[in-house]
Amino acid sequence: MLGLSAKDTGFLLFVTFLTLATPILLQPFPESSSLAQFNAGYPDLMQRFAIFGIFAIGFNILFGLTGYLSFGHAAFLGVGSYSVVWTYKLLSFNVLPGLILAIVLSGIFALFIGFVSLRRSGIYFSILTLAFAQMSYNLAYSVLTPLTNGETGLQVYGSDPQYLMGEGSPDVPNLFGLVMQDSMKVPVGDWVFTFNVGYYFTAVIAIFVFYISLRIFRSPFGLILRAIKTNRTRLNYAGINTRPYMLAAFVISGMYAGLAGGLLAAMDPLAGAERMQWTASGEVVLMTILGGAGTLMGPVLGAGFIKYFENIFSKINETVLHDWFGALPEPVRDFLIGIISPFVGDGWQLTLGLLFMLVVIFLPGGIMEGAKRIGSLFRRKPSQGGGSPAPKAPVEAAETSNQPAE
Amino acid sequence: MSTNVHNVVLHVDDVHKTFGGLHALADIDLAVEEGKTHAIIGPNGAGKSTLLNVIVGRLAPTSGAVVFDGQVLTGKQPYEINQLGVARVFQTPEIFPDLPVLHNVMTPAFAKRDGAYKLHIWENLLDEKTIQEEAEHLLQDVGLWERRMDHAGALSRGDKRRMELAMCLIQHPRLLLLDEPTAGMSRHDTNTTIELLKKVKERGMTKIIIEHDMHVVFSLADKISVLAQGRIIAEGNPEDVRNDPKVKEAYLGGAH
Q1: Is the pLDDT of residue B250 over 80?
Q2: What CATH number is attached to the domain comprising B17?
Q3: Which of A214, A237, A403 to substitute to test the interface with B, most B CBs within 10 Å?
């Protein structure tokens, strides 16, 4: 179905189900429980999961398949955001033209930056992309102020022309009248599930672009990108000119980033230069590595993981800790709070950094490798207990190695 | 030289190659006939690999030209030369160690089918039955079919060479260059490889072989050129070369 094998179709349906059920799955704790603050099922955070998931999926097509580490993908994120806000200013608050413009413009940007940067590989490629992104950031911040509104950030003012604004058009981002920030709250017992228009809009796009990435992973094009990662010399002597393939991968991942940036502005009609800063480029690298570079699901999980930490862990401050340990005798309580507090609240990045180090050292394949190891533990057990024939194991291993990207 | 000149597919025309002051190749003239196996032998450092590198475009000759089937190869990129129908097996196997064996063999087939630039984003590898079947068939020929799902990096050196040979054969090249195809192989593996290369010969593929192993050379070659110190000192059919006193002195006698 859809040009996929039965196994991949099942996988895509599973991912689709998870994405559509996210508002329920991320709300596991009842409202009245003290764990409710760990619930992630609110619109703003879910939108970020989907948007940065898209960003990471695209980045993975470049980094995961070809091994070329771009440190400048945030530039495309910024281009996407500015494009969408400009269509708000010039046309109307309908997000569709802006998103199309975001994809096209970031594609053109990526074509140029990729053409220059791909003359080098390895660390020099990374530095070139970083230089381009920092250049874009500084330009957006200063010289290009007429286009970007510099420090203040680009936003819509009452004086903007908005030529396509009709009488009844909503004055917030919408899709043909469907307002992004609208939500439906559904209380079920002690749980409250929020179904947000913006989230479902980004979720549908995310599923679609995930499908595209799945097709790329399974295509001859994807095979050649993997081959570039492992031996470019051989490809050359096998009759392949690697540069067009690299450039195509770079432009595709740039367009993904542009789409993600556009969606950020589609959820919240603002665009600022800080979106292009190198920290934003580094973040998508972390997401991809943490989740598992070169795997299909890894970058999405990595994106979710980091955004969850950023939004949930950062909220646990000392007051919250006092609530948790309130019942303990004072010296024990103070001791525990003293130990834990540097790692939560404003210190969430410390925990994330430590986790990242642990993952890179012990699970170089990221979260996906961890999942695979746990999976193989469970798979081995029945074969030991049930005494199923031994030769089965190598065949299974062979099958997974045939499709290294789950 | 006067007979069958029209059948020559590869001309190496007065090629010189110097590295600084070192004359790696001098006055090299070579005519490789269609469908024949042409062996280039010579002691270490004679310039055999340099010659091969000049033919495939890895090195540019200082002067002279290489002409394949009427096209000048000199100055062309390796991928352009491959697209003309020249494939090469390296002395140190150049493979895709992180990919499964089957995909290693399938990848060059796509290059052959689609050319150097074409991007197929919207096809599924699993639908490429013809290419996959041919790859599996070749893997059976080289005795690696059972290992087709293993990562190529996990193969032994001899297996890597045989896989690399399959990677070249799937392109049906008109000219196959083999840089010591049996180096590092056991006697048994060497014999299997000779049989395999004989099979290739029956298909009418032209081959240039660089080889140390005289057993391999005399089993396969139709014509032998002996290289010593960057020059061709003798050329002819295996019997003549074997009995040539100059060759005995420079290579066969001198080396042993």
Answers
A1: no
A2: 3.40.50.300
A3: A237
